[in-house]
Amino acid sequence: MASRLVTTADALPARIQAGDQGAIARLITLVERRDPVGLQLLSELNPGHRAHTIGVTGAPGSGKSTLVARIAEVYRRDGKTVGILAIDPSSSLTGGALLGDRIRMASLAGDPGVFIRSMASRGALGGLARASLDAVAVLEAAGMDVVILETVGVGQAEVDVVGATHTVAVVSVPGMGDDIQAIKAGLLEVADVHVVNKSDYRGAQRTVAQLRDMLRLRHRRSGQWNVPVAQTVAETGEGAADLVAEFARHRDWLERTGEIDSRDRRNASARIRWAAQDLLADQIRRRGAEFDDAVSRVAQRQLDPHSAAAAFIRTTGPSRARSGDLARSQARAEP
Amino acid sequence: MTVDDGRELPLRVLLAKVGLDGHDRGVRVVARTLRDAGMEVIYSGLHRTPEQVIEAAVQEDVDILGISILSGAHLSIFTRVFALLKDQPDRRFRIIAGGVMPDEDAAALRAMGVDDVVGQDTSPEELVARVRSVARMSSIVST
Q1: Which of the four CATH numbers 3.50.50.60, 3.40.50.300, 1.10.260.40, 3.40.1190.20 does domain A50-257 have?
Q2: What's the predicted TM-score (pTM) here?
Q3: ipTM rounded to 2 decimals
Q4: Interchain proximity B88–A22, CB inside 8 Å
């Protein structure tokens, strides 16, 4: 099956750096689908600057998308360009998805300084975390000052994804009451900023108080970032400017303390591990007969799983992105 | 849409409502039908302009742009859409018109470049089949 490449694959990097939206979108598709040419192009892109990446997550119904639109508007007023990657869950049954975040960001439509891309949690080959961070890398290479990654924080993959951004904002809404506990524990720990949205609702102050209590109970080393609890009403935009100010304060703290470098190192480490897992999964798929043979031997107790895995890895060949594969992919690109 | 090892990749579809037309029940049913058929569906919401819809189709790198029009304004809207698409010489997405259109208008739309016209009485099965069929047409569309 022909891969969906344009004839001008070679021209993509220049077009992306010039901000050509079609080229940016095309490369995001290619890296999401782990197309070898796309991954090669991604490796050649040099952003020349470090975007401020912001992860926004929270339960469904917390108003995240509307809030992200308000946040983007503030950045736009400040003259910053914004890339938004909005991730929605796919159906585990059909693999399809209704990607419903963009519709809530209608106020940003037509603004050439904003790029919005919707991604389904299962649409990426090899895993959401890898694909979404590759997409963030494309947006950064396109020159975006800020890249916002929005997810529903329900699965570990989504927690991994937001944890790989510079500033993580966790959004909750009043009335969750004891359901603060229902927010995945991993999410609460990873938050750099807590946001209580729909703060005009009853119970907002109690939610703020619960979050502050929870934060106080955490052991905090001196010099650590003091996690604020911000309040917003995304419908009206109230609190959005203050929230963006918190993001800026966090970014400044990251730079001043050098923490931004350790975050980038941690993210690089995660991305390498995910890429390695993908490569191994590729190998297993492509050497199916060999793998099945190992499965039989393990199931019949002739071999233990650890030895089988080690033997499999030892005989793993060169990676997929070889020049031969690249040439074949480029040849397919010509119609 | 497949990759080398034969796995099927989901089609990406943007469903759009353009102009003053406020009827969105049908397009929401179409959205759910296509999702249940394994596609990734983005719905634009009501009252979008042709410029906004094309911008979204480009950013989302969709396979199919479906524009639903139940207001009778289909000829003028698609005329505007295709005028704008002249600025997108390497557009990859195919275009489907949905809604209520007389046969002669459907013919006029196809002449403009619409790849299929899907009436509102189309069954879910046929809808899915026709969307897949349009998506299988060649990748690069010359306008």
Answers
A1: 3.40.50.300
A2: 0.89
A3: 0.92
A4: yes
